[in-house]
Structures are given as structure tokens and as C-alpha cells.
Design brief:
Helix content: 25-40%
Distance between the termini: 17 Å
Oligomer: single chain
Largest sheet: 5 strands, mixed
Number of helices: 10
Structural class: alpha/beta
Shape: globular
Number of strands: 13
Order of helices and strands: EEHHEHEHEHEHEEEEHEHHHEE
Strand order of the largest sheet: 1-7-6-4-5
Bound molecules: acetyl coenzyme *A
Length: 323
């Protein structure tokens, strides 16, 4: 038996922090409203010269450093983003070139806020089938560039950033408790594509467009879909919610995290929450939260962790791994 084992994590944030109070100077909102409805207190916003690729490169270098690996050992890069530097080529190829590991496989995946889960599942499958041995899996976004900064219902919710992990295929010799990815489930329901979308694109308007969202509907679907996919993964792995040391959720809204945890009877102390600091960084949010909790010592070697996310499409997924 082989498993894709977590070797290292890294993250990167833009230099500039924007607080709720600063946003309230631009649109009709308040720190109190944003904190009460979302749990968000601040977000990082990319400045001149900071792009999805530059953040991804910094996060990748940090993950490689954490893994004690040289970039030349990486033969697969999967980068999740909805805000690529260019329509093409894939931002992953820019990362590959900057790291100096050209020649392997490199491509982007687009599943919006669930993108990192889709990227992890793709990399895991490719490692298990032997197409590659060591993968960099990245979630990187500059959502600030697709927001309508006059729309208070969306601009307060998002931020920019990147997170990266290194996965390595390892022979586990039938050891059920071996470290690595144990079970993953992904879903999509295209019937809901117009509840959360960007109103532009190369083939429609030839513009980049702005994010549009029916917030309360997204909220309801998120809680239902996340609860069901978490239960599926627990069942596939033959473990119960009590066995999980840490849930590392997509950081969309503190109320979605609370509601999902309550339904699964997972205590709040075992949920990694970074939404207050980073806001919703879409595909970057899960690896950013994972790196934060590993570096501050919450997540330790041997822990059983559950990653989960839901986003535009709708798309959603969850992944159980032993660290
Ligand atoms: N500041 C002040 N007032 C606001 C703001 C704001 N930033 N935004 C909306 N309001 C107002 C609305 O206009 C409305 O006013 P009205 O009653 O006079 O019409 C009132 O606040 C309530 O608006 P709702 O949309 O009903 O507020 P709700 O409690 O649902 O919170 C929110 C909105 C935060 C967007 C919530 O629905 C949500 O978090 N949904 C999930 C969306 C999400 O997380 N999307 C991210 C991408 S998908 C994902 O990652 C899962």
C-alpha cells in the first residue's frame, strides 16, 4: 500500500493589512456588523508587484524549506486558483520556473474555494498511480482583484494569500495507522453555478469581471454540503468525529464553521480558525490555516486531521489525513 504523506507546509501573505474600520471608510459598513456576521477582523490585500504567482512562489519556498527538500526533487505542481496571473499559461508553470524545477508536471485547477481540496485529491491520485513521486500542492489567490469595492455585501468578506504543502508517495506496508492521506471525497453541483460566480471571462465578456454572490443561499448550502461530505469521509475511513484531532476548514465565515461543527458534534476547540485574521482567501484558505496551526504547534506529528471546503460551482470536498 502507498500513501501520500505530508512533508511540509508553507504560506505567504501580502504586506498590507486592511482592517474592518478601514473598509468602513470606503463602504457603508462597520467593524461590528462584519465581526458579528462573519468573524472577520482584518484581511491582507495584495499591493503593486504582488500577484497570485508571487504569493504562490513564496509559500512554496517556505513549504520546501519546512520539508527539508530541494525544488529539484519536485516532479508535480498542482496549483488551485480562481485568480490566475494570466488566462494562460497556468500559474503553476510560473511557480515551476521560479523554483527552477522545470520538466515535471505543472498545471492549475479551478474549483474556487474548494480548489485546494480538488488539487490535493488530484495530486494524491497521481502520486498513487506512480505518475510522480513528490508534489507541491498550492492554493493561491488575489481575490481583491475581482471584487467590486463598492459592493459592501461582498468586498468585506475576502482577502489575498497563498498556502502550499509538499506531498510524497511512501510505501506504508499495510500499516493502517501510517501517516498520509487516508480518504478523500469531492462533489460538484453545477445547478447552483449562478449563486456564486464572476460576471466576466475571456469567452463571454472579454473582461475579468466581478464576484457576485447570493450570500444567505450560499450559507445554507455550505452547512448542508459540508456536513454530508465530512460524514462520507468519516465512513470511508471507518473513524468517528471524536477520533479527529483537528478540523482545518475553509475559512469563509465563522458562523459556517460553528454550524458545521455543531452538526457533527465536534468541539470548537478542535477547529482551526483563521478567518478573523485572513478573511476568505478562497483556495488559499485551507493550506494557510494548516500552515498556521502546524507552525504554532497546535497540529503535531501523528494527529488525525480533516480538511474541508465548499465554494462556487458549487463544489465541495473533504480529506482525512494523518500528519
Ligand atoms: N455591512 C453592513 N450591512 C450589510 C453588509 C455590510 N458589509 N452586507 C450586507 N448588509 C446588510 C444587507 O444589506 C441587509 O440589509 P437589509 O436587511 O436592510 O436588506 C442586512 O445586512 C442582512 O443581509 P444578509 O445578506 O441577510 O446578511 P447575512 O446575515 O446572511 O450575512 C453574509 C451575509 C455574511 C454574506 C452571509 O450570508 C454569509 O456569510 N454567507 C456565506 C457566503 C460566503 O461565505 N461566501 C464565500 C464564498 S463561498 C464559501 O466560501 C463557502
Amino acid at each position: 500500500m502507498t500513501r501520500s504523506r505530508l512533508r511540509g507546509t508553507g504560506s505567504a501573505l501580502p504586506a498590507k493589512v486592511v482592517t474592518n474600520a478601514e473598509l468602513a471608510e470606503r463602504v457603508d459598513t462597520s467593524d461590528e456588523w462584519i465581526v458579528e456576521r462573519t468573524g472577520i477582523r482584518q484581511r491582507y490585500i495584495a499591493g503593486e508587484g504582488e500577484t497570485t504567482a508571487s504569493l504562490a512562489i513564496e509559500a512554496s519556498r517556505s513549504a520546501l524549506d519546512d520539508a527539508g527538500m530541494d525544488a529539484s526533487e519536485i516532479d508535480l505542481i498542482v496549483l488551485a486558483t480562481a485568480t490566475p496571473d494570466n488566462t494562460f499559461p497556468a500559474t503553476a508553470t510560473k511557480v515551476q520556473d521560479a523554483l527552477g524545477c522545470n520538466g515535471g508536471i505543472a498545471f492549475d485547477v479551478a474549483a474556487v474555494c474548494s480548489g485546494f481540496l480538488y488539487a490535493v485529491a488530484t495530486a494524491d491520485s497521481m502520486l498513487k498511480t506512480g505518475m510522480a513521486k513528490r508534489a507541491l500542492v498550492i492554493g493561491a489567490e488575489t481575490f481583491s482583484r475581482i471584487l467590486n469595492w463598492e459592493d459592501r455585501t461582498t468586498c468585506v468578506l475576502f482577502g489575498d494569500g497563498a498556502g502550499a504543502i509538499v506531498l510524497e508517495r511512501e510505501d506504508t506496508s499495510d500499516n493502517e495507522n501510517a501517516a498520509g492521506i487516508i480518504a478523500t471525497r469531492l462533489h460538484a453541483d453545477g445547478a447552483q453555478h449562478d449563486l456564486l460566480y464572476v460576471d466576466g471571462g475571456p469567452s463571454t465578456t472579454q473582461t475579468v469581471g466581478h464576484l457576485r454572490m447570493r450570500g444567505p443561499e450560499v450559507f445554507r448550502h455550505a452547512v448542508v454540503n459540508l456536513t454530508s461530505v465530512l460524514n462520507e469521509v468519516l465512513e470511508d475511513a471507518g473513524v468517528s468525529a471524536e477520533d479527529i484531532d483537528w478540523v482545518v476548514p475553509h475559512q469563509a465565515n465563522a458562523r459556517i464553521l460553528d454550524a458545521t461543527a455543531r452538526k457533527l458534534r465536534i468541539p470548537a476547540e478542535r477547529i482551526v480558525v483563521t478567518v478573523d485574521q485572513h478573511a476568505n482567501t478562497s483556495a488559499a484558505s485551507v493550506p494557510l490555516a494548516l500552515d498556521t496551526a502546524r507552525r504554532d504547534g497546535r497540529i503535531k506529528a501523528g494527529d488525525l486531521i480533516m480538511l474541508e471546503a465548499m465554494g462556487g460551482g458549487f463544489t465541495w470536498g473533504a480529506c482525512l489525513m494523518r500528519v
